[in-house]
Design goal:
The complex is a heterodimer of chains A (about 190) and B (about 280). Chain A is mostly helical and about 190 residues long. Chain A is globular and about 60 Å long. Chain B is an alpha+beta fold. Chain B contains eleven helices and nine strands. In chain B, helix 2 crosses helix 3 and helix 2 runs antiparallel to helix 4. The chains are: A mainly alpha (about 190), B alpha+beta (about 280).
Chain lengths: ~190, ~280
């Protein structure tokens, strides 16, 4: 039950993009077409899952036992960046098509705030291992949902007659704001 | 002492991770032809597709595999062709520089509108509805071509027609595809004589819908029958190289200016709005 609550909370209610405003750079940058945005969502979900696992291990096996909690930020980013690098090399070797679809997005998000945010939030909320993993995966699904929604709307916006000063990033931000407002409707489902 | 623990811990973590990365790099390295990177660095990375491949990376792969000629990239021009040939150890092939040319002079003023159009502001959408201009062959002024240009070589002029900067134009052909009315074509840079109209309307109609339309009066055909023919109410240059210099003046007697040189002598150029920027 607790896991289900974490899942729904991270996907819909406390969505990383709409609630925490994390990961806005890929959210705005790669949401022009649905295809790449799905790839980006997949890559983010993947890295977030990896982050959840590795940051929990670092935190509970190294940092907390030695009383080094204050090194969380540095060590998390260090571990995440190297792990992603490793996985990228691995994918490139093992499956070129998957690398084409997702590999190029991996280095882009390694040092994104959504990744950092997840690691720190999970540590802050004192989740156990399983909860952290569910938190990571569902945060990724939430991000994918957000970016694909945005891309679908922006594909339609391409044809709309947007007033000149609002074209490009401006209308994208307005759209993002309206989606955020819509997602606020979910708040209160879980107290 | 309290300083030592974090330093050692972080150092250890970093060391283990970097050792892992080095090991993985050795183990998992994908063998790539070293020429591939060199070639990819030479190509313009515009990914315009003018070479017929999916992008610069795809062309680089095709070049290494011997499936493309060294002059395949019209964007890079002779310079890139020469360097590519050097890398691949092949003979250099010439690239004729081509640029996009507009075949319409239906400005806002010359070609009046028949209706007000408030739909999506693209030529494609307007063209689907038949266009808002009286002339059903001419430019729609929404600049699909300008937006399609990956090299920033086009802009929409004040008169509504796109202006092509031939210095920046690389001949990638994106605008040629973008124009729903097929008014843009790639031509060798040195070609200077064109028919600036695509209207196949009957002369009486053409005269009404656009001041600068070809009205099939045959003056140009009579001036130079060996290189110009009349085809469904529209003059057509069959071979521009066959037009002798001394006949250009006679061809340019065209009453609507629908055929002639793109760039004229200097004094004249100032009077006539050029459709090319140098």
């Amino acid at each position: 039950m607790n896991l289900l609550i974490i899942f729904i909370s991270a996907v819909l209610i406390n969505n990383f993009v709409f609630y925490y405003f994390l990961g806005l750079c890929p959210y705005l940058g790669v949401s022009r077409k649905i295809g790449p945005s799905i790839s980006m969502g997949m890559a983010v979900t993947f890295v977030l899952s990896l982050t959840a696992v590795s940051s929990w291990m670092i935190n509970h096996w190294i940092l907390i036992p030695y009383g080094l909690d204050y090194l969380q930020i540095v060590s998390f980013i260090l571990v995440i960046a190297s792990l992603v690098q490793l996985v990228e090399m691995f994918i490139r070797k093992v499956s070129p098509p998957l690398y084409q679809a997702m590999g190029i997005y991996l280095p882009l998000i390694t040092t994104n705030c959504v990744i950092m945010g997840l690691a720190l939030l999970a540590a802050l909320k004192n989740y156990n291992f399983l909860e952290t993993v569910v938190f990571g995966v569902s945060a990724g699904i939430g991000f994918t949902l957000a970016i694909v929604l945005m891309a679908a709307i922006r594909e339609q916006l391409e044809l709309a007659d947007v007033p000149r000063p609002l074209r490009g990033a401006a209308i994208a931000l307005i759209t993002a704001g309206i989606i955020s407002l819509a997602f606020m409707g979910f708040s209160g489902i879980i107290k | 002492m309290s300083l030592l623990v974090p330093i050692i811990t972080m150092g250890l973590i970093a060391f283990v991770l970097s050792a892992g990365l080095v090991f993985a790099y050795r183990k998992l390295r994908v063998e790539v032809d070293p020429r591939l990177e060199e070639i990819a660095a030479l190509l313009p990375q515009a990914n315009c597709g003018a070479c017929g491949f999916a992008g610069c990376q795809a062309l680089a792969e095709a070049l290494v595999a011997g499936k493309a000629e060294t002059n395949a990239c019209p964007v890079g021009g002779n310079e890139v062709a020469r360097l590519l040939a050097a890398i691949l150890g092949k003979e250099s092939l010439e690239v004729t520089k081509k640029v996009a040319r507009l075949h319409c002079r239906g400005t806002h003023e010359a070609a009046p509108a028949r209706s007000q159009y408030t739909g999506p502001a693209t030529c494609l959408a307007a063209h689907l509805l038949g266009g808002h201009k009286l002339c059903t062959y001419g430019c729609l002024h929404f600049g699909d071509c300008v937006r399609s240009c990956p090299f920033d070589a086009m802009r929409l002029g004040d008169d509504g027609l796109p202006v092509i900067n031939e210095q920046k134009c690389t001949g990638c052909g994106k605008c040629v595809e973008a124009c729903p009315r097929g008014l843009l074509e790639l031509h060798p840079l040195e070609r200077n004589i064109f028919v600036f109209c695509r209207s196949k309307d009957r002369p009486a109609v053409a005269r009404k819908v656009c001041k600068n339309a070809c009205i099939a009066c045959n003056i140009c055909v009579r001036a130079c029958p060996e290189a110009i023919i009349m085809e469904s109410n529209l003059a057509k240059i069959t071979d521009w190289k066959k037009i002798p210099a001394d006949k250009i003046a006679a061809i340019e007697k065209c009453p609507t200016g629908a055929i002639g040189r793109l760039k004229k002598e200097r004094d004249e150029a100032e009077k006539i709005e050029l459709r090319a920027e140098v």
